[in-house]
Design goal:
The complex is a heterodimer. Chain A is an alpha/beta fold. Chain A is 38% helix and 15% strand. Classes of the chains: A alpha/beta, B alpha/beta.
Chain lengths: 424, 160
Amino acid sequence: MPEYSFDTLSIHAGAKPDPATGARTTPIYQTTSFVFDDVDHAASLFNLQQFGNIYTRITNPTTAVLEERVAALEGGAAGLATASGHGAQLLIFHTLLQPGDHFVACKKLYGGSITQFSQSFQKFDWHVDWAETPDAEGIKAAITPKTKAVFIESLANPGGVIMDIEAIAKVAHDAGVPLIVDNTLASPYLCQPIKHGADIVVHSATKFLGGHGNSMGGIIVDAGTFDWSASDKYPSLSQPNEAYHGMKLHETFGNIAFAITCRVIGLRDLGPAISPFNSFMLITGIETLPLRMQRHSENALKVAEFLESHKEVSWVSYAGLKNSAYYDAHQKYCPKGAGAVFTFGVKGGYEAGVKLVNGIELFSHLANVGDTRSLIIHPASTTHRQLNEAQQEAAGAGPDVIRLSVGLEDASDLIADLDKALKA
Amino acid sequence: MSETSYTSDYLAGILKSAKTIAMVGASPKSIRPSYIVMKYLQKKGYRVIPVNPGVAGQEILGEKVYASLSDIPEKVDMVDIFRSSEAAGPIVDEAIAIGATSVWMQIGVINPEAAAKAEAAGLKTVMDRCPKIECSRLSGEAGWMGINSNLVSTRRQHLL
Ligand SMILES: Cc1ncc(COP(=O)(O)O)c(C=O)c1O
């Protein structure tokens, strides 16, 4: 088979015509369960001796197309879809960590992830150690013998920052732990973290993969690169598993063991399964991912350039701007575009931010990114309000910060709308 | 991590031409990968003959276990190796001696010298792969588990 390009895989990967009916579009297999051929077939499936469908909490043929599609686009060995991005993160850490374990993350993260890691994960006795600076040195300094993983966002939410994935992967691997990259904001069209050393990629598919703001979903991609049995750090993968009669999942499944473990332990027991309908919506969205990401990035650059010269704006943080500290990282890691999401500062702080979001017309004021529609939010009064001011600043979400997710409308309409609301 | 890469056509060619597979290191324990692979390959219609000196004379999944490849009284097409990389060397020599046409080393079993020897004797070789995973991948079943098959097709799929 030829090596197909990204745009071709966006449409075709994982989606052969339906074997049962010949349907060309992937059918929505809206069923909870699947019949067994006989008792022996059932036993083989339950004991992981054979791949097959049992119950939609664990696998579903529509969802499987989404999983293979994203695995192919990321250049990974296997994928796993979940009900949301947060659900995907939960399964990743459930597979990697035991109670008392630690992982290192950098604070340039989606606010919800900061809260998930620092608060809800505590209940599982899982602990995040924050890197002081969002770079390889900061991450290296935060790693201890208890560290089991490193987590970063490629293009960090709320925007403008691009991480040095290669250097951070090296630091993680030197410590014998995997690098997890949240690639939500870049999408595999703009950045492929596995090429730069990531071992696990995670997405909120809710965002650019789906792209239309209509369906929640999450994806885990297993690069197939990490040796889970090289140390005793990952017993869920390297040690005999009670639930499967003592099977060692890494030994049995090799380079797809991480994805399989997330599925047959995490998804099976914790349960954040995606609905087949949502999988269908996300598959459909991904077919136009390349076109959308191009237009998103073009529009965002035009809007960022306009804001940079606006007298009511004190700064703009968009890696696509030549004066950005992350311009070089943009050229290295996502040369096709710097994405749709970025932040800027309004003169007048918190009040000016609130005034802008109240006065804008074409941008929708809501807590999401990665929609065809342009979106605006004032993080300090919404997504990041659970954090204190120091944490907000550290996450790039201080009181004067406005975050945009630039949509696919005509850029001049967006610019006119922002200009009017800023001047009001 | 894998030092080896094989095209899908190459792997499919080996799996399609084999009818009888000798599995060296076959285990009678149902949780061992070899047992799972043997059971799967039987379901797919292959005759699988287990080789394991520790349990020679007993049966695994209805097949008599032999102590070595050369004890097998019938023709073997493919030899599947569930042993360490070092142990693979002499097993490959035996595979050549009994006239097998391919040698398949499991995930983690990597012995380039042995592979080169087998290739020189005209055998097709695979290292660091699992025939169950490849067979599932190539027949489209693996997609059910979100595995990247690296295959694109616009034709209706007929499951093996
Ligand atoms: C970068 C990033 N990661 C993870 C998430 C969480 O994903 P979800 O909302 O699908 O649970 C989000 C959501 O905003 C996000 O922007």
